[in-house]
Write a structure and sequence with these properties.
five-stranded parallel sheet, alpha/beta, 7 helices, globular, 133 residues
C-alpha cells in the first residue's frame, strides 16, 4: 500500500512539540499488520524535508518499525497522473483548505481520510460526502 499524507504540521510531525504526533506514529504502528510500501508526506516548504526525516527516524526507532517515509513538495506530485500511484490519502492541512484538497483527491478516486473538521462549512461537507459516494 502506498499512502499519501498531505500536510507536514503538528498532527503529522508534532511541529511545535517535542515528539512526533499521531499520524506518523499511527502509520508506523499500522505497518506491523499491513504491508505499507511507502508513505509520502507532501507539503509546501522544502524545509519540511528535514523535519519529516527526523520524525520518521524517531518513530521507527521508538516503535521498532521500518516504515519508509519520503517527503515531496506538493508542487512535484499534485497532478492526477502522479496521484494514481497512491491507494489512499490522509489530509492534515489547515481547516480552511480541507475542502479544496479533499475534493481534488476524491476526484482522483483516492480513498481519503480527513482530520477534523471534515470541512469548514456544512455545505462543503455535504459536497464531499456526495462526491465520495
Amino acid at each position: 500500500m502506498n499512502i499519501l499524507v498531505v500536510g507536514a504540521g503538528m498532527y503529522v510531525t508534532g511541529r511545535a512539540t517535542q515528539n512526533p504526533d499521531t499520524v506518523l506514529s499511527a502509520l508506523a504502528e499500522l505497518s506491523r499488520s499491513i504491508e505499507i510500501n511507502k508513505v509520502t508526506i507532501c507539503a509546501t516548504k522544502e524545509e519540511n524535508n528535514q523535519v519529516v526525516k527526523r520524525c520518521s527516524e524517531e518513530v521507527n526507532q521508538i516503535l521498532k518499525t521500518n516504515l519508509f517515509v519520503e517527503y515531496k513538495l506538493i508542487s512535484e506530485i499534485w497532478k492526477f497522473e502522479d496521484l494514481n500511484q497512491y491507494d489512499c490519502a490522509i489530509v492534515c492541512v489547515p481547516d480552511h483548505i480541507h475542502y479544496e484538497i479533499s475534493h481534488f483527491l476524491l476526484e482522483c478516486k483516492l480513498h481519503v481520510q480527513i482530520v477534523k473538521p471534515l470541512a469548514p462549512t456544512l455545505n462543503e461537507a455535504k459536497k464531499l460526502f456526495r462526491l465520495q459516494q
